[in-house]
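ok new one. same drill as before - C-alpha coordinates go in, u give me an amino acid for every spot. 519 of them this time. try not to just spam alanines like last time pls lmao
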Protein backbone atom coordinates (compact mmCIF):
# COMPACT_ATOMS: atom_id res chain seq x y z
CA UNK A 1 0.00 0.00 0.00
CA UNK A 2 1.33 3.42 -0.94
CA UNK A 3 0.75 6.48 1.26
CA UNK A 4 0.86 9.98 -0.20
CA UNK A 5 1.60 13.01 1.94
CA UNK A 6 -1.10 15.64 1.74
CA UNK A 7 0.38 18.92 0.54
CA UNK A 8 -1.12 22.31 1.34
CA UNK A 9 0.08 25.37 -0.50
CA UNK A 10 0.22 28.38 1.83
CA UNK A 11 -0.60 30.57 -1.16
CA UNK A 12 -3.94 28.74 -1.40
CA UNK A 13 -5.01 29.62 2.15
CA UNK A 14 -3.75 33.18 2.74
CA UNK A 15 -4.41 36.22 0.58
CA UNK A 16 -1.65 37.60 -1.70
CA UNK A 17 -1.01 40.67 0.47
CA UNK A 18 0.10 38.43 3.34
CA UNK A 19 2.16 35.92 1.38
CA UNK A 20 5.49 37.83 1.52
CA UNK A 21 5.11 37.96 5.32
CA UNK A 22 4.67 34.27 5.94
CA UNK A 23 8.34 33.23 5.87
CA UNK A 24 9.76 36.63 6.82
CA UNK A 25 11.51 36.33 10.21
CA UNK A 26 13.55 39.53 9.98
CA UNK A 27 10.75 41.99 10.74
CA UNK A 28 10.16 42.06 14.50
CA UNK A 29 6.87 44.00 14.57
CA UNK A 30 4.02 43.27 12.16
CA UNK A 31 0.87 45.40 12.40
CA UNK A 32 -2.17 44.00 10.59
CA UNK A 33 -5.23 46.22 10.33
CA UNK A 34 -8.35 45.71 8.27
CA UNK A 35 -12.02 46.30 7.79
CA UNK A 36 -14.56 43.51 8.20
CA UNK A 37 -13.53 40.22 6.52
CA UNK A 38 -9.95 41.32 5.82
CA UNK A 39 -8.69 37.85 6.98
CA UNK A 40 -6.00 39.18 9.34
CA UNK A 41 -7.15 36.79 12.11
CA UNK A 42 -7.06 33.87 9.70
CA UNK A 43 -3.49 34.74 8.70
CA UNK A 44 -2.39 35.06 12.33
CA UNK A 45 -3.90 31.66 13.14
CA UNK A 46 -2.22 29.88 10.23
CA UNK A 47 1.09 31.60 10.98
CA UNK A 48 0.87 30.65 14.70
CA UNK A 49 -0.07 27.03 14.05
CA UNK A 50 2.72 26.74 11.50
CA UNK A 51 5.19 28.17 14.02
CA UNK A 52 4.74 25.39 16.57
CA UNK A 53 4.66 22.69 13.85
CA UNK A 54 7.70 23.84 11.85
CA UNK A 55 10.06 25.04 14.58
CA UNK A 56 10.94 22.45 17.26
CA UNK A 57 12.49 25.17 19.43
CA UNK A 58 9.88 27.95 19.34
CA UNK A 59 6.52 28.42 21.06
CA UNK A 60 3.73 31.01 20.69
CA UNK A 61 1.75 33.15 23.13
CA UNK A 62 -1.59 34.70 22.18
CA UNK A 63 -2.74 37.69 24.23
CA UNK A 64 -5.88 39.72 24.66
CA UNK A 65 -6.36 42.42 27.22
CA UNK A 66 -9.18 40.44 28.85
CA UNK A 67 -8.67 36.70 29.41
CA UNK A 68 -12.41 35.91 29.40
CA UNK A 69 -12.69 36.88 25.71
CA UNK A 70 -10.09 34.44 24.45
CA UNK A 71 -12.01 31.16 24.22
CA UNK A 72 -14.84 32.33 21.96
CA UNK A 73 -12.61 34.35 19.66
CA UNK A 74 -8.92 33.81 18.93
CA UNK A 75 -8.73 30.32 20.52
CA UNK A 76 -11.38 29.06 18.08
CA UNK A 77 -9.59 30.81 15.22
CA UNK A 78 -6.39 28.93 16.03
CA UNK A 79 -8.28 25.64 15.84
CA UNK A 80 -9.68 26.65 12.46
CA UNK A 81 -6.11 27.39 11.36
CA UNK A 82 -5.15 23.77 12.05
CA UNK A 83 -8.03 22.68 9.83
CA UNK A 84 -6.90 25.01 7.04
CA UNK A 85 -3.40 23.55 7.23
CA UNK A 86 -5.07 20.10 7.04
CA UNK A 87 -3.06 18.74 9.95
CA UNK A 88 -4.88 15.99 11.89
CA UNK A 89 -5.90 17.28 15.32
CA UNK A 90 -4.75 14.05 16.94
CA UNK A 91 -1.21 15.34 16.49
CA UNK A 92 -1.92 18.02 19.07
CA UNK A 93 -2.81 18.13 22.75
CA UNK A 94 -5.63 20.67 22.86
CA UNK A 95 -6.85 21.78 26.28
CA UNK A 96 -9.33 24.41 27.46
CA UNK A 97 -8.20 24.72 31.08
CA UNK A 98 -5.59 25.98 30.73
CA UNK A 99 -6.08 27.02 27.13
CA UNK A 100 -3.11 25.51 25.33
CA UNK A 101 -2.37 23.83 22.00
CA UNK A 102 0.76 21.63 22.02
CA UNK A 103 2.27 19.93 18.98
CA UNK A 104 3.13 16.48 20.28
CA UNK A 105 6.09 15.80 18.02
CA UNK A 106 8.10 18.82 19.20
CA UNK A 107 6.43 19.67 22.51
CA UNK A 108 6.06 23.25 21.25
CA UNK A 109 3.06 25.02 22.70
CA UNK A 110 0.68 27.86 21.96
CA UNK A 111 -0.29 29.60 25.20
CA UNK A 112 -3.33 31.87 25.65
CA UNK A 113 -3.47 34.60 28.26
CA UNK A 114 -5.01 37.89 29.27
CA UNK A 115 -2.50 40.65 29.90
CA UNK A 116 -3.16 40.40 33.65
CA UNK A 117 -2.01 36.74 33.56
CA UNK A 118 1.29 37.22 31.74
CA UNK A 119 3.41 36.46 34.80
CA UNK A 120 1.59 33.16 35.34
CA UNK A 121 2.04 32.25 31.67
CA UNK A 122 5.72 33.16 31.75
CA UNK A 123 6.21 30.80 34.68
CA UNK A 124 5.03 27.69 32.78
CA UNK A 125 6.91 28.27 29.51
CA UNK A 126 9.55 25.66 28.68
CA UNK A 127 12.90 27.50 28.65
CA UNK A 128 14.17 25.16 25.92
CA UNK A 129 11.30 26.29 23.70
CA UNK A 130 11.11 30.07 24.20
CA UNK A 131 8.39 32.26 22.77
CA UNK A 132 9.20 33.02 19.14
CA UNK A 133 5.87 34.63 18.25
CA UNK A 134 3.53 36.89 20.23
CA UNK A 135 0.05 37.54 18.87
CA UNK A 136 -1.67 40.67 20.23
CA UNK A 137 -5.34 40.21 19.37
CA UNK A 138 -7.72 43.21 19.45
CA UNK A 139 -4.82 45.53 20.21
CA UNK A 140 -7.20 48.48 20.67
CA UNK A 141 -8.25 47.01 24.03
CA UNK A 142 -4.72 47.56 25.37
CA UNK A 143 -5.15 51.29 24.71
CA UNK A 144 -8.80 51.65 25.74
CA UNK A 145 -8.54 49.59 28.94
CA UNK A 146 -4.80 49.49 29.67
CA UNK A 147 -1.57 51.44 29.43
CA UNK A 148 -1.30 51.23 25.65
CA UNK A 149 2.18 51.69 24.24
CA UNK A 150 3.87 51.15 27.61
CA UNK A 151 1.99 47.90 28.17
CA UNK A 152 2.91 46.56 24.73
CA UNK A 153 6.57 47.44 25.32
CA UNK A 154 6.48 45.52 28.61
CA UNK A 155 4.98 42.49 26.84
CA UNK A 156 7.80 42.55 24.29
CA UNK A 157 10.40 42.78 27.06
CA UNK A 158 8.79 39.85 28.88
CA UNK A 159 8.82 37.38 26.00
CA UNK A 160 11.84 38.39 23.92
CA UNK A 161 14.16 36.92 26.57
CA UNK A 162 15.93 33.72 25.58
CA UNK A 163 15.81 34.48 21.85
CA UNK A 164 18.88 34.92 19.68
CA UNK A 165 16.90 35.80 16.56
CA UNK A 166 13.57 35.35 14.81
CA UNK A 167 11.38 36.80 17.59
CA UNK A 168 8.23 38.51 16.24
CA UNK A 169 5.11 40.28 17.48
CA UNK A 170 1.95 40.48 15.37
CA UNK A 171 -0.65 43.10 16.32
CA UNK A 172 -4.23 42.78 15.08
CA UNK A 173 -6.93 45.44 15.23
CA UNK A 174 -9.67 47.21 13.31
CA UNK A 175 -8.81 50.93 13.23
CA UNK A 176 -11.07 53.12 15.39
CA UNK A 177 -13.08 55.82 13.64
CA UNK A 178 -11.15 58.55 15.36
CA UNK A 179 -7.83 59.36 13.60
CA UNK A 180 -6.68 60.81 16.93
CA UNK A 181 -7.26 57.53 18.81
CA UNK A 182 -4.14 56.55 20.78
CA UNK A 183 -3.66 53.28 18.88
CA UNK A 184 -3.69 55.15 15.55
CA UNK A 185 -1.04 57.51 16.90
CA UNK A 186 1.01 54.52 18.10
CA UNK A 187 0.74 52.83 14.69
CA UNK A 188 2.02 55.93 12.90
CA UNK A 189 4.95 56.03 15.32
CA UNK A 190 5.73 52.32 14.79
CA UNK A 191 5.70 52.76 11.02
CA UNK A 192 8.82 54.90 11.34
CA UNK A 193 10.81 51.95 12.72
CA UNK A 194 13.02 49.85 10.46
CA UNK A 195 11.90 46.64 12.20
CA UNK A 196 8.16 47.26 11.68
CA UNK A 197 5.78 46.69 8.77
CA UNK A 198 2.12 47.69 8.62
CA UNK A 199 -0.25 45.97 6.19
CA UNK A 200 -3.88 47.02 5.79
CA UNK A 201 -6.47 44.87 4.02
CA UNK A 202 -10.19 44.84 3.39
CA UNK A 203 -12.66 42.38 1.91
CA UNK A 204 -11.80 43.46 -1.62
CA UNK A 205 -8.35 41.86 -1.17
CA UNK A 206 -9.97 38.48 -0.53
CA UNK A 207 -11.08 36.05 -3.25
CA UNK A 208 -14.83 36.29 -3.71
CA UNK A 209 -15.19 32.51 -3.42
CA UNK A 210 -13.81 32.68 0.16
CA UNK A 211 -16.33 35.30 1.24
CA UNK A 212 -19.52 34.30 -0.54
CA UNK A 213 -21.92 36.46 -2.49
CA UNK A 214 -24.06 37.29 0.56
CA UNK A 215 -21.21 39.02 2.41
CA UNK A 216 -20.29 41.11 -0.61
CA UNK A 217 -23.94 42.04 -1.11
CA UNK A 218 -24.17 43.12 2.54
CA UNK A 219 -21.13 45.37 2.14
CA UNK A 220 -22.50 46.89 -1.06
CA UNK A 221 -25.86 47.58 0.57
CA UNK A 222 -24.14 49.51 3.36
CA UNK A 223 -22.22 51.47 0.73
CA UNK A 224 -25.55 52.60 -0.70
CA UNK A 225 -27.16 53.33 2.66
CA UNK A 226 -24.26 54.99 4.48
CA UNK A 227 -20.97 55.45 2.57
CA UNK A 228 -19.15 56.79 5.61
CA UNK A 229 -20.10 53.82 7.80
CA UNK A 230 -19.15 51.51 4.90
CA UNK A 231 -15.67 53.03 4.75
CA UNK A 232 -15.16 52.40 8.46
CA UNK A 233 -16.81 48.98 8.86
CA UNK A 234 -15.83 47.35 5.57
CA UNK A 235 -12.76 49.27 4.44
CA UNK A 236 -11.31 49.86 7.91
CA UNK A 237 -10.70 53.57 7.37
CA UNK A 238 -10.46 56.01 10.27
CA UNK A 239 -13.20 58.20 8.85
CA UNK A 240 -13.39 60.66 11.73
CA UNK A 241 -16.08 61.02 14.37
CA UNK A 242 -19.17 63.17 13.91
CA UNK A 243 -20.18 65.27 16.90
CA UNK A 244 -23.74 64.08 16.34
CA UNK A 245 -23.60 60.42 17.33
CA UNK A 246 -26.53 59.13 15.27
CA UNK A 247 -25.84 61.28 12.22
CA UNK A 248 -27.24 58.51 10.00
CA UNK A 249 -30.71 58.67 11.59
CA UNK A 250 -33.34 59.77 9.08
CA UNK A 251 -37.08 60.20 9.53
CA UNK A 252 -37.60 58.84 6.00
CA UNK A 253 -35.64 55.63 6.64
CA UNK A 254 -36.06 54.97 10.34
CA UNK A 255 -39.61 55.96 11.32
CA UNK A 256 -42.98 54.34 10.71
CA UNK A 257 -46.58 55.23 11.55
CA UNK A 258 -48.01 52.85 14.10
CA UNK A 259 -51.55 53.09 12.71
CA UNK A 260 -50.28 51.87 9.32
CA UNK A 261 -48.69 48.73 10.78
CA UNK A 262 -50.96 45.77 9.78
CA UNK A 263 -52.66 43.81 12.53
CA UNK A 264 -51.52 40.45 11.15
CA UNK A 265 -47.92 41.66 11.25
CA UNK A 266 -48.27 42.72 14.88
CA UNK A 267 -49.19 39.16 15.80
CA UNK A 268 -46.04 37.92 14.06
CA UNK A 269 -43.67 40.03 16.19
CA UNK A 270 -41.12 37.84 17.96
CA UNK A 271 -39.37 38.44 21.27
CA UNK A 272 -40.18 41.77 22.93
CA UNK A 273 -37.78 43.61 25.21
CA UNK A 274 -38.30 46.77 27.26
CA UNK A 275 -35.42 49.04 28.21
CA UNK A 276 -35.68 51.20 31.33
CA UNK A 277 -33.91 54.53 31.81
CA UNK A 278 -34.67 55.45 35.42
CA UNK A 279 -34.27 58.98 36.70
CA UNK A 280 -34.86 60.24 40.20
CA UNK A 281 -34.52 63.86 39.16
CA UNK A 282 -34.45 63.33 35.41
CA UNK A 283 -37.33 61.74 33.45
CA UNK A 284 -37.97 58.00 33.55
CA UNK A 285 -38.45 56.30 30.17
CA UNK A 286 -39.50 52.80 29.06
CA UNK A 287 -38.78 51.87 25.43
CA UNK A 288 -40.31 48.70 23.93
CA UNK A 289 -38.77 46.91 20.94
CA UNK A 290 -39.69 43.69 19.19
CA UNK A 291 -37.93 41.43 16.69
CA UNK A 292 -39.82 41.68 13.41
CA UNK A 293 -39.04 38.39 11.72
CA UNK A 294 -41.08 39.31 8.63
CA UNK A 295 -39.06 42.42 7.84
CA UNK A 296 -35.85 41.13 9.49
CA UNK A 297 -35.49 44.26 11.64
CA UNK A 298 -35.62 45.46 15.22
CA UNK A 299 -38.89 47.40 15.46
CA UNK A 300 -39.65 50.08 18.05
CA UNK A 301 -43.13 49.51 19.47
CA UNK A 302 -44.05 52.00 22.18
CA UNK A 303 -42.77 54.41 24.79
CA UNK A 304 -43.53 55.48 28.36
CA UNK A 305 -42.27 58.86 29.56
CA UNK A 306 -42.69 60.60 32.88
CA UNK A 307 -40.94 63.73 34.12
CA UNK A 308 -41.42 64.69 37.74
CA UNK A 309 -40.28 68.22 36.92
CA UNK A 310 -42.89 68.62 34.21
CA UNK A 311 -45.69 67.09 36.25
CA UNK A 312 -44.75 68.70 39.56
CA UNK A 313 -44.62 65.35 41.39
CA UNK A 314 -41.89 62.74 41.66
CA UNK A 315 -42.92 59.08 41.55
CA UNK A 316 -41.62 56.33 43.83
CA UNK A 317 -40.11 53.06 42.51
CA UNK A 318 -43.33 51.23 43.42
CA UNK A 319 -45.37 53.70 41.36
CA UNK A 320 -43.06 53.29 38.38
CA UNK A 321 -43.34 49.50 38.78
CA UNK A 322 -47.14 49.76 38.55
CA UNK A 323 -46.73 51.91 35.43
CA UNK A 324 -44.45 49.21 34.03
CA UNK A 325 -47.10 46.59 34.72
CA UNK A 326 -49.70 48.62 32.81
CA UNK A 327 -47.21 49.28 29.99
CA UNK A 328 -46.42 45.55 29.67
CA UNK A 329 -50.12 44.62 29.72
CA UNK A 330 -50.81 47.05 26.87
CA UNK A 331 -47.89 45.70 24.83
CA UNK A 332 -48.84 42.07 25.49
CA UNK A 333 -52.44 42.65 24.48
CA UNK A 334 -51.52 44.55 21.34
CA UNK A 335 -48.93 42.04 20.14
CA UNK A 336 -50.51 38.88 21.51
CA UNK A 337 -47.41 37.66 23.28
CA UNK A 338 -45.73 37.98 26.66
CA UNK A 339 -42.90 40.48 27.04
CA UNK A 340 -39.68 38.46 26.95
CA UNK A 341 -37.32 40.65 28.98
CA UNK A 342 -37.02 43.93 30.85
CA UNK A 343 -33.57 45.52 30.91
CA UNK A 344 -32.83 48.08 33.63
CA UNK A 345 -29.83 50.00 34.87
CA UNK A 346 -28.19 47.89 37.63
CA UNK A 347 -27.93 51.02 39.83
CA UNK A 348 -31.74 51.20 40.02
CA UNK A 349 -31.84 48.23 42.42
CA UNK A 350 -34.99 49.40 44.21
CA UNK A 351 -36.94 49.79 40.98
CA UNK A 352 -35.74 46.40 39.72
CA UNK A 353 -37.04 44.68 42.85
CA UNK A 354 -40.40 46.44 42.60
CA UNK A 355 -40.78 45.47 38.94
CA UNK A 356 -39.94 41.85 39.74
CA UNK A 357 -42.60 41.90 42.42
CA UNK A 358 -45.44 43.22 40.22
CA UNK A 359 -44.56 41.36 36.96
CA UNK A 360 -43.01 38.11 38.22
CA UNK A 361 -43.60 36.36 34.89
CA UNK A 362 -41.11 38.64 33.05
CA UNK A 363 -37.35 38.23 33.63
CA UNK A 364 -35.72 41.51 34.66
CA UNK A 365 -32.06 41.69 33.64
CA UNK A 366 -29.46 44.29 34.59
CA UNK A 367 -28.49 46.23 31.49
CA UNK A 368 -24.94 46.02 30.19
CA UNK A 369 -23.70 49.56 30.75
CA UNK A 370 -21.12 49.58 27.97
CA UNK A 371 -21.94 52.89 26.33
CA UNK A 372 -19.31 52.61 23.59
CA UNK A 373 -20.49 49.14 22.55
CA UNK A 374 -24.14 50.19 22.66
CA UNK A 375 -23.52 53.22 20.46
CA UNK A 376 -21.58 51.12 17.95
CA UNK A 377 -24.37 48.55 17.69
CA UNK A 378 -27.11 51.15 17.27
CA UNK A 379 -25.08 52.99 14.61
CA UNK A 380 -24.65 49.80 12.61
CA UNK A 381 -28.33 48.86 12.94
CA UNK A 382 -29.29 52.31 11.67
CA UNK A 383 -26.75 52.18 8.84
CA UNK A 384 -28.05 48.78 7.70
CA UNK A 385 -31.64 50.05 8.13
CA UNK A 386 -32.26 47.20 10.57
CA UNK A 387 -33.69 49.47 13.29
CA UNK A 388 -36.85 51.53 12.94
CA UNK A 389 -38.80 53.53 15.50
CA UNK A 390 -42.50 54.09 15.95
CA UNK A 391 -43.57 57.71 15.79
CA UNK A 392 -45.05 57.06 19.24
CA UNK A 393 -41.48 56.98 20.59
CA UNK A 394 -41.23 60.77 20.60
CA UNK A 395 -38.58 61.18 23.27
CA UNK A 396 -36.31 58.58 21.68
CA UNK A 397 -36.70 60.27 18.29
CA UNK A 398 -35.76 63.57 19.88
CA UNK A 399 -32.70 61.99 21.52
CA UNK A 400 -31.53 60.65 18.16
CA UNK A 401 -31.17 64.23 16.98
CA UNK A 402 -29.52 65.57 20.13
CA UNK A 403 -27.09 62.90 21.38
CA UNK A 404 -23.58 64.26 20.80
CA UNK A 405 -19.94 63.61 21.53
CA UNK A 406 -17.99 66.25 23.38
CA UNK A 407 -15.86 67.85 20.61
CA UNK A 408 -12.92 68.28 23.00
CA UNK A 409 -12.90 64.57 23.80
CA UNK A 410 -12.71 63.75 20.07
CA UNK A 411 -9.64 65.96 19.71
CA UNK A 412 -8.01 63.97 22.52
CA UNK A 413 -8.69 60.65 20.76
CA UNK A 414 -11.60 59.61 22.98
CA UNK A 415 -15.32 59.69 22.24
CA UNK A 416 -17.21 60.84 25.33
CA UNK A 417 -20.93 61.59 24.92
CA UNK A 418 -22.26 64.81 26.40
CA UNK A 419 -24.46 63.60 29.23
CA UNK A 420 -26.91 66.45 28.87
CA UNK A 421 -27.74 68.85 26.09
CA UNK A 422 -25.31 71.45 27.41
CA UNK A 423 -24.49 73.23 24.18
CA UNK A 424 -24.83 76.87 25.08
CA UNK A 425 -26.58 80.12 24.30
CA UNK A 426 -25.27 83.35 25.83
CA UNK A 427 -27.12 84.78 28.79
CA UNK A 428 -28.56 87.73 26.85
CA UNK A 429 -30.30 85.45 24.31
CA UNK A 430 -34.01 86.27 24.22
CA UNK A 431 -36.35 83.30 24.71
CA UNK A 432 -39.97 83.40 23.55
CA UNK A 433 -41.90 82.43 26.70
CA UNK A 434 -45.69 82.53 26.93
CA UNK A 435 -45.19 85.73 28.97
CA UNK A 436 -43.06 87.41 26.31
CA UNK A 437 -39.39 87.53 25.42
CA UNK A 438 -37.06 87.01 28.39
CA UNK A 439 -33.22 86.84 28.47
CA UNK A 440 -32.26 83.24 29.14
CA UNK A 441 -30.11 84.30 32.12
CA UNK A 442 -33.33 85.45 33.86
CA UNK A 443 -34.82 81.97 33.55
CA UNK A 444 -32.09 80.27 35.62
CA UNK A 445 -33.65 78.30 38.47
CA UNK A 446 -37.16 78.87 37.16
CA UNK A 447 -39.80 76.78 35.39
CA UNK A 448 -42.37 77.85 32.84
CA UNK A 449 -43.47 77.49 29.23
CA UNK A 450 -41.77 78.50 26.00
CA UNK A 451 -42.91 78.51 22.41
CA UNK A 452 -41.16 75.83 20.34
CA UNK A 453 -41.37 73.83 17.13
CA UNK A 454 -43.13 70.43 17.07
CA UNK A 455 -41.08 68.24 14.74
CA UNK A 456 -43.77 65.56 14.49
CA UNK A 457 -46.66 67.90 13.65
CA UNK A 458 -44.56 70.43 11.72
CA UNK A 459 -45.79 73.48 13.54
CA UNK A 460 -45.50 75.75 16.53
CA UNK A 461 -46.51 74.71 20.03
CA UNK A 462 -45.49 75.36 23.62
CA UNK A 463 -43.65 73.18 26.12
CA UNK A 464 -42.38 73.37 29.70
CA UNK A 465 -38.81 74.42 30.46
CA UNK A 466 -36.75 73.68 33.56
CA UNK A 467 -33.14 73.20 34.74
CA UNK A 468 -31.91 76.36 33.01
CA UNK A 469 -28.32 76.84 34.15
CA UNK A 470 -24.82 77.94 33.21
CA UNK A 471 -23.17 74.96 31.51
CA UNK A 472 -19.76 76.37 30.57
CA UNK A 473 -17.42 79.23 31.34
CA UNK A 474 -15.05 80.99 28.95
CA UNK A 475 -16.44 79.03 25.99
CA UNK A 476 -15.82 80.27 22.47
CA UNK A 477 -19.00 81.91 21.17
CA UNK A 478 -20.15 82.65 17.61
CA UNK A 479 -22.85 84.98 16.34
CA UNK A 480 -25.41 83.93 13.73
CA UNK A 481 -27.32 86.66 11.91
CA UNK A 482 -30.64 85.80 10.25
CA UNK A 483 -32.01 87.55 7.18
CA UNK A 484 -34.54 89.45 9.31
CA UNK A 485 -31.71 90.93 11.38
CA UNK A 486 -32.13 88.65 14.39
CA UNK A 487 -28.82 87.68 15.95
CA UNK A 488 -28.14 84.58 18.03
CA UNK A 489 -24.90 84.00 19.97
CA UNK A 490 -24.06 80.38 20.79
CA UNK A 491 -21.28 77.80 21.00
CA UNK A 492 -20.23 75.96 17.85
CA UNK A 493 -22.06 72.77 18.86
CA UNK A 494 -25.42 74.41 19.53
CA UNK A 495 -28.12 72.78 17.42
CA UNK A 496 -30.49 74.70 15.13
CA UNK A 497 -33.53 73.02 13.60
CA UNK A 498 -33.49 73.70 9.85
CA UNK A 499 -35.34 72.42 6.81
CA UNK A 500 -32.66 69.72 6.54
CA UNK A 501 -32.96 68.69 10.20
CA UNK A 502 -30.83 69.44 13.26
CA UNK A 503 -27.62 71.21 12.30
CA UNK A 504 -24.78 72.37 14.56
CA UNK A 505 -23.91 76.05 14.40
CA UNK A 506 -20.49 75.31 12.91
CA UNK A 507 -22.15 73.33 10.08
CA UNK A 508 -24.71 75.97 9.06
CA UNK A 509 -24.42 77.47 5.61
CA UNK A 510 -25.89 80.51 3.89
CA UNK A 511 -28.67 78.47 2.26
CA UNK A 512 -30.03 76.99 5.51
CA UNK A 513 -33.51 78.06 6.56
CA UNK A 514 -34.59 77.79 10.18
CA UNK A 515 -38.05 76.40 10.91
CA UNK A 516 -40.40 79.21 11.86
CA UNK A 517 -42.63 79.03 14.92
CA UNK A 518 -46.16 80.27 14.37
CA UNK A 519 -47.47 80.00 17.93
Amino acid sequence: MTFHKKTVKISDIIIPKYQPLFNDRKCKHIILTSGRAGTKSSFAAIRSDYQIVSDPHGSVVVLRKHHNKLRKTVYKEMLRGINRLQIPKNRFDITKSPMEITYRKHGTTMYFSGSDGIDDTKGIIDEDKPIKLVIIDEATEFFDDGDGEEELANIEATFVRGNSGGFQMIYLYNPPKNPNAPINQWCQKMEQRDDCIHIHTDYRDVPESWLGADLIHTAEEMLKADPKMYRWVWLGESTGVDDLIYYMFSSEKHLYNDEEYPQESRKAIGEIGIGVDYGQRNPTVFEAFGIDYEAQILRGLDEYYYSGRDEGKQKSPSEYAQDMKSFCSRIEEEYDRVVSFIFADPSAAGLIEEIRRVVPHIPVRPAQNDVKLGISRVQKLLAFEKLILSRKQKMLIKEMGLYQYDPKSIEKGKEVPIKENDHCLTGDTLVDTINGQVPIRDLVGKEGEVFCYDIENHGGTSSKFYNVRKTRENAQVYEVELEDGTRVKATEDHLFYTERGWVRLKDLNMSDRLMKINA
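The chain has a mean pLDDT of 87. and btw Residues 317-335 form the longest helix (19 residues).
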